[in-house]
Amino acid sequence: MSVNPVDLNKLRSAHANLYETVVAISKRAKKIHEEERAELEEKLLPYKEMIRNPGSESESDKVFPEQIAISLEFESREKASQKAVAGYLQHRYDYTLGKIAEPKVTPIEDDETDGD
């Protein structure tokens, strides 16, 4: 797996706060990863059932070539983080900031009395 550098100035171009942009991209990458994982689980489900409930003793330890091909295909895909960064740079999605609630500050009362 190679490392792909990202120009931070490009990330900063749409929004001033780079940290918020990175957080938004990472949330998008997590969503992409979850979608791909669900797809992989769906494709591998028949093979998991065959392993759990083998028809014979020989099937219990069997490795299915189709299962390996599916896994290799998913491994060779572009990583979710790379897809999220590319999508952001190509303006396929954007994020909006919610209003940040300001914390309430309660005054501290000094009830200390000097015993003098």
UniProtKB/TrEMBL annotation:
It comes from the Bacteria. This is DNA-directed RNA polymerase subunit omega.
